[in-house]
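Collaboration report, partner site 2.

Our partner group contributed sequences for two proteins of shared interest, and the home lab folded both. The records are reproduced in the order in which they were received, starting with the first partner submission.
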Amino acid sequence: MSNLRQILKPSIRAVSNRMRYPHARVGSCSFVQDGSILAPGVVVGRNCHIFGAHLEAGTFLGDNVIVGPQARLAGTNVGRRCVIENEVDLFRSLLEEFVSVQAKCTINQTTVGRYSYFAREAYVNDVSIGSFASIGPRTLIGSGDHPHDLVSTSPVFYSTRRQCGTSFAQINHFIERKFISLGHDVWIGANVFVRDGVTIGDGAIVAAGATVTMDVPPYTIVGGVPAKVIRSRFPEDILKRLLALQWWGWDEARLRAAQPWFAQPDIAAFLRWAES
């Protein structure tokens, strides 16, 4: 009887998903926990796990969201028309509309603005990311920190998190996680490491392979290990006008109307149009 139950389990789950979410498509062998919400048009691939009620809040998938095979989502709000590719782990996060997460990314305790994307195998933890951000492949943002001025760098002596399975500390003696902020229209290249506590300003660019240990001003290009300023993207007067414009907050109609101005190199002409 138990073997028969195991054989029939995927079919029973598929029927249950169709009954609970008739307006969505849930792939075979996928599990959607009570407390989660699938909006109309959602497509969930095979062998996915969408967890809800056992966390602080359920998982919500907005209209026409696509979730690839073997993805795991928990306690997460995903805006309309987002794409979550295969083998993505997405926990306790908020994604606004039109966000794309490519295969094998891990995103935890992170907020992401609209029209942003993560390339393959990015790892992001405890981060705020603005709109129109481009996060390159294999980036590592928010991996935690270790002390350099204590006798030992091992967390077994200063942390109660039990990273080694035990701890000698009764209280935490060091802040291991510090919030990271990435602004709007930021481009992070491939294989970049961003240290905890760093702020990267609007419009900044981080070159591939960089190690970012200090704050990056808006519209600045940095690179190297550790990352250093290469140059500003624009003159100071242009930079100030772009920041004041805050175009990343425009509605979709205005963004579409502005598309030809975004896709050309004359920044002054764009500003004249935008400020008129």
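Second partner submission, folded after the first:
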Amino acid sequence: MTPTRARLLLAAVFMARGTSFLFSKTLMRTLQPMSILAVRFLLAFLILGAIFHRTLLHCDHKSLRSGVILGALYTVCMVFEMFGLRLIDTGVSALIENMAIVLVPVFAAVLTRTLPRRKTMICAALAVIGVGFLSLTQQSSGNGGLGIFLAILAALTYAWCIMATETVSKDADPMAIGIVQLGVMGVLSALIALPMGGVELPHTGEEWVMLLMLVLVCSCFGFAFQPLGQKYLPAEEAAVLTVINPLTASVMGILIAGESMSVAKCVGYVLILSALALYNMREKQRA
């Protein structure tokens, strides 16, 4: 796969992932977060496993290990995302989580014991200030502060997931990794759901439609094909494309869910999106 096709694939992946925020938040009105995750990822694993059964049968040890590692990391990320999402707006949650775009190079600098580039630090500062403004808009709900905190934890773990994906997907079967990853996420989510009342299925046709959208669009496509696209791109370039995720979630939240847009929220949106755009500009110039 050429780098250009890998970029297009990742762009479509992050757009699909962006729709998951609205579907998940709507389903959490009647279903528990861990039940949604368990059913979503187990169904996605079964569907992809049936389609690509030969890939699973010939899965080598490295691909299996990589899928398990990523599945565990992404489960932690999704737990933070879901429990934070039900306390704050979809667009706010998506923007904060996708600060991973500027956290990846910061983490990389820490690991290599080097100073981050000045523009990276500026982007990080803009994003943090933007989160501060978004926090002000979520204080009307009693647990808005907790939701912001959980979204920040999701951003931190998501950045590690992006970096880990680049590391473990090298010299391994990316499709096998994606399928195994979904199975691990489904099993771990079901285990976490057990002490919370067990795994509960949707009750209405509308809920099933939204859940199937999460399964087919956001999981089967969104999660399974990310290792395939990221295999041919460095972690920092993949992080740049994540800007599509919060943009999709924000637009859907405003147009479909009717989420309000206050002055403080506008300022927060502009600051975070400016940080993402500025970082994107740096990557293009360096390329």
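Feedback sent to the partner group on the second submission included the following. The chain has 14 helices and no strands. Residues 3-286 form one domain.
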